[in-house]
């Protein structure tokens, strides 16, 4: 797999592919980043973008992880002290997921976002951004989207200026970040700052087949005890022959195959066909859709793989 294929795999959208190719041809190492609001546990949704950071490091990027404690505070996720403690915890989880410590820079929002120069850029962008545009940009990521606080309207402006202040070439996020990233691409040049290339990953469904949400408990934390991982996956929504909104297939596609280079083996009794090995997700999905793979066999092997993949996090966090 060449560098471009590695960067583009398991992505929803890249704005734009030609600009991305240009980054890969730069003589110096380009910089990519993800900002994580430090509001709770790191779960499989966050891990999807962390997997992409691993791909980017292999493709020659330096990586910046913004632990967005001030964003979390503005989004009513806790006091500054509480969100800073969560940020420390999140940092340890992300390192345990395999990021290269020599090429990963962790930055706390409160370390630079309260500086006069940063705040001046926010005010300059605020003069150019309508209330409707700011609200559309923050709807996907804010709490109380029906009746937002002014602080939440500032959120997308800060995220755009983050990209400039951290000297980012490639902004990475889930597809729910798209409106904020497009705001950055349009408005940063008006401040005399470069527009970033943007890479968006899909949003994987929660374990019940609905939108993943920490408040609904339909996700898996990366430091979750092994027995809980097994229990959750075995009870997850996984209708036979159905791909759409199937969280078990999504976990296999976006977490198991990218991290297990040898592929995935489904263990089954001989009377049900015996073990079968898949070198690619596409082969696995084809068998599942045809009915050759039973949901319970898939769940059992998926759980075993995720327990193995997440073992370094449990060890690091002593769970």
Automatic annotation (TrEMBL):
Its EC number is 6.1.1.1. It is found in: Cytoplasm. Pfam families: tRNA-synt_1b. It comes from the Archaea. Its main location: cytoplasm. One of its GO terms (biological process) is tyrosyl-tRNA aminoacylation. One of its GO terms (molecular function) is tyrosine-tRNA ligase activity. InterPro entries: aa-tRNA-synth_Ic (IPR002305), Rossmann-like_a/b/a_fold (IPR014729), Tyr-tRNA-ligase (IPR002307), Tyr-tRNA-ligase_3 (IPR023684), Tyr-tRNA-ligase_arc/euk-type (IPR023617), Tyr-tRNA_synthase (IPR050489). Homodimer. This is Tyrosine--tRNA ligase. It comes from Methanothrix soehngenii (strain ATCC 5969 / DSM 3671 / JCM 10134 / NBRC 103675 / OCM 69 / GP-6). The lineage of its organism: Archaea, Methanobacteriati, Methanobacteriota, Stenosarchaea group, Methanomicrobia.
């Amino acid at each position: 797999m060449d560098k471009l294929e590695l960067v583009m795999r398991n992505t929803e959208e890249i704005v734009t592919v030609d600009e991305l190719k240009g980054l890969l041809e730069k003589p110096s190492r380009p910089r990519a980043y993800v900002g994580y609001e430090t509001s709770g546990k790191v779960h499989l949704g966050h891990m999807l973008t962390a997997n992409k950071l691993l791909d980017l490091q292999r493709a020659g990027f330096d990586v910046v992880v913004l632990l967005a404690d001030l964003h979390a505070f503005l989004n009513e996720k806790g006091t500054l002290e509480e969100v800073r403690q969560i940020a420390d915890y999140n940092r340890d989880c992300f390192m345990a997921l395999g990021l290269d410590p020599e090429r990963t820079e962790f930055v706390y929002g409160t370390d630079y976002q309260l500086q006069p120069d940063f705040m001046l850029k926010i005010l300059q962008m605020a003069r150019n951004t309508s209330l409707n545009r700011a609200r559309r940009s923050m709807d996907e990521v804010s709490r109380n989207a029906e009746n937002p606080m002014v602080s939440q309207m500032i959120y997308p402006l800060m995220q755009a200026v983050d990209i400039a202040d951290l000297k980012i070439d490639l902004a990475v996020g889930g597809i729910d970040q798209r409106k904020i990233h497009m705001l950055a691409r349009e408005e940063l040049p008006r401040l005399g700052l470069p527009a970033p290339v943007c890479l968006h990953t899909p949003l994987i469904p929660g374990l019940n087949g609905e939108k993943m949400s920490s408040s609904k408990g339909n996700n898996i934390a990366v430091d979750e005890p092994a027995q809980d991982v097994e229990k959750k996956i075995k009870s997850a929504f996984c209708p036979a022959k159905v791909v759409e909104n199937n969280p078990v297939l999504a976990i296999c596609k976006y977490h198991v195959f990218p991290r297990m280079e040898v592929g995935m083996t489904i263990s089954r009794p001989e009377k049900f066909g015996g073990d079968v090995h898949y070198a690619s997700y596409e082969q696995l999905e084809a068998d599942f859709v045809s009915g050759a793979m039973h949901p319970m066999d898939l769940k059992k092997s998926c759980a075993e793989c995720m327990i193995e993949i997440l073992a370094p996090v449990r060890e690091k966090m002593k769970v």
